[in-house]
Design a protein that fits this description.
418 residues, 2 domains, four-stranded antiparallel β-sheet, binds pyridoxal-5'-phosphate, 17% strand, Aspartate Aminotransferase, domain 2, Aspartate Aminotransferase, domain 1, alpha/beta
Length: 418
Amino acid sequence: MSAADESLATRKAPFDVARIREDFPILKRLVHGKPLVYLDNSASTQKPQAVIDAMARFYADGYSNVHRGVYLLSEEATRSFEEARDKVRAFLGARETREIVFVRGTTEAINLVAHTWGRRHVGEGDEVLVSGLEHHSNIVPWQLLCEEKGGRLRVLPIDDRGELMLDRLDELLTPRTRILAVAHISNALGTVNPIRRIVEAAHRRGVKVLVDGAQAVAHHAVDVRDLGCDFYAFSGHKVYGPTGVGVLYGRAELLEAMPPYQGGGDMIRSVSFEKTTFGEIPHKFEAGTPDIGGAVVLGRAIDYVTAIGLEAIAAHETDLLARATEAIRDLPGVRLIGTAREKASVLSFVIQGIHAHDIGTVLDADGIAVRAGHLCAQPVMERFGIPATVRASFGMYNTREEIEAFARAVRKVLEMFR
Ligand code: PLP
């Protein structure tokens, strides 16, 4: 066990941000000679030493291909890979390990469902319902599907706060609706959507629900059975794990009935030139050599997050969000984008007369990393009549002092441009 693992294993203390920061080596970095203030956690999270060590350890000591060898190393790697799958199952509250498919990330998970379930169930004149606050990756795959099949993409709009207009839901769930695809938490606005209520409304009409959990899993405990959704997608890199690996959860009976996504090794039962039969779920959807190390290390990231506790993380981030909101909301020219009553970890804003990129650049000079742009959510930008926003998004290692530094830097922008 490495020092980082031991420090985690012995962690009993209540939430202690200073202690958590010690686990993240990158937070010691200077940027333009200033301490790094990393506020782009919605784009991707930094990695704790326990995750970095687990990656090195797997390649140094436990690596081989999986599901193939009769030799010890391959058996060990296969065990580690499948144990990681079970950690994900527990993390999401899924009933069965075979309901967890390893993919490259949220984007691939959604494409998988659109290509397989979607191609089979969406036909001419059928409808796919998405919401007005989706990331492009929960719009474009459905658009491609609708174009191919002659289907229609419909949109559940958002109001001026950035909340879904749920009073429109019943009218938009028509007899032609096949699937509703919605984010758990909006990456552009921070809105937390009432997924259980949405799922209940959809299921009453026999409509399946895919939840894009990319922004949720690092901030809220998720229980897919409690939510009742049919599919749930997330990315490892947004939950303190590695890039290149993510997860699609699907209810077993749906996954079983779906055709494969890609063909290749590892997903078959038998192959001949006349006919191929496919393996069981989840392997049917995991053609080729998967990101073995990524999956194993994602398991380690889940251990890390779970040891700290998502409730404590959520409480900490809620405090940071409230402070950051309070600090900038009344500054001259500042307009918050997204003021939903239920929000998590995201503060998007614009300043009248100052381009988002200029704000981002001034903040960067002070070592503060925020996102500036359309945030892969151009329809949200259009809804609010702006080309871009600045987004500060918080993670478990951010501090109140960093929020103060952020607010000071925003005030500096105002001084510089006025
Ligand atoms: N969905 C949401 C809400 C996101 O915020 C993101 C990434 O920013 C994605 C999907 C896509 O995730 P990935 O690029 O890891 O596939």
